[in-house]
Design goal:
By secondary structure, this protein is mostly beta strands. It is built from 1 helix and 15 strands; from the N terminus they run αβββββββββββββββ.
Amino acid sequence: MNRRHARILAAGPAAVLAATLGVTAALAATTWTVKPGGAFTATAGNASFKDTTTRSTFTCSSVTASGTLKSGSGLSGSGAGSISAVVFGHCTSPLGVTWGLMPTDLPWHVNLSSYNGGVATGSISHMQIQFAGPSCTAVIDGTSATAGNGHVRFSYTDSTGRLKTFTTGGNLHFYNVTGCAGLWNTGDALTISGSFTLSPKQTITSP
């Protein structure tokens, strides 16, 4: 065996080992510690909803979600918690029209994806909302009216105990729109902007 072939054969196991270690490190970085975990409520005032195509908006004077978070360390970020109930309070458009929102396909899922400097980011998934108003009905979901795969992204700050939803990175859309006077149309994307206070306050860190 010449020296060139010997170097190639020697490099093979080293490359496999390095790749294996890299995968292990990536998996370790996705484990989480949540304290105290357990039952929680998340409450926001003046959560804003926007159709990104028509620019039509409505605001809910309050949104309260309740659910549970897993507790402990070494937790997976996927399915780190669940939301079993959501109440949307007094949702109105700038013209004073009142809209009703009813969460469906519960429980929704709470997932954690990254952590940096005391701030965890993640998503709320499995979302679906029934939407209704005067001469107007629609379904809010992800990829179809029946998919049950809508999601929004969020950040959670340990020091403040506040969770903020992002207006980017989600996939919510209106479907099965009936009436609604062109305020929203089937296929239009929807964003939700809100700042929620978690009670009890949680400490969410990784690893």
